[in-house]
What we know:
alpha/beta, 5-stranded parallel beta sheet, disordered N terminus
Amino acid sequence: MTFRALLALPLAGLLAACTAPGPAPEAEPGPEPVTYDHYVALGDSFAAMGSRSATTTGPFECFRSVDNYPSLVLADDRVTAGEDVTCSSAVTADIPGQAAALTPDTDLVTLSIGGNDIRFGEIAACFRRALTEPLDCPTLLDAPVSEQLTTLPGRLDEVHALISETSPDARVIGTGYLPLVASGECPELATIPEEHRAWAVDLTDRINAVVREAAERNDAEFVLPTDASAHSACAEPGERWADISGEETDAYPMHPTPLGQRAMADAVGDQISK
């Protein structure tokens, strides 16, 4: 544009001519999302059991629901293939058998184990009976449970070593145990003394600490959904991530609800995004 032409422009046009933006710079392409080609889910009933009404796969006694958190992780777009070999009642000594699903190419593993090693089945059965009977579960179970908690770290280290030896490039994520009970008001467990529930709350914290510390010692990761304690059986049925009877939530007794399995899958999904 010539100087004479500039003089002929109105002031607004002159300003527009001088300040018109150039073409917008092209956006930088973001990083490619990480994908996993072979995912294996190892562990016990807290990973295996989803909706009580859901179809199950694998051996009947495993109660491996098609809507458990491993199945939901398998449905993630970032996971292209994998296998769920979790099984109800599994203990650390059962992991070598489950580990047959691992290969040198396995690149993602989730692990839920340790609860049955410290007698979770006995603890759950005692608290269910305590709903209708005057049972003192902490007095009955604290000594044997504490003894098992003392030896559990070594057993968890062996499990992590086996995974690392079999699938050295795998990203391993230990999943914690969703709390079944909480301190404070709890209509669902009104017949159980507050101090007995406090023992159960502390026990859940203790085993989750052991599982988390084992993961950290062995260069693995640990996840537990945020604010899990607000979603125990003491919450309203529609807010529960774990339940006692499961009658109002379609859960297996003393296990995660479908919402709890979804919350754990989301926690795993958030973790693999990091």
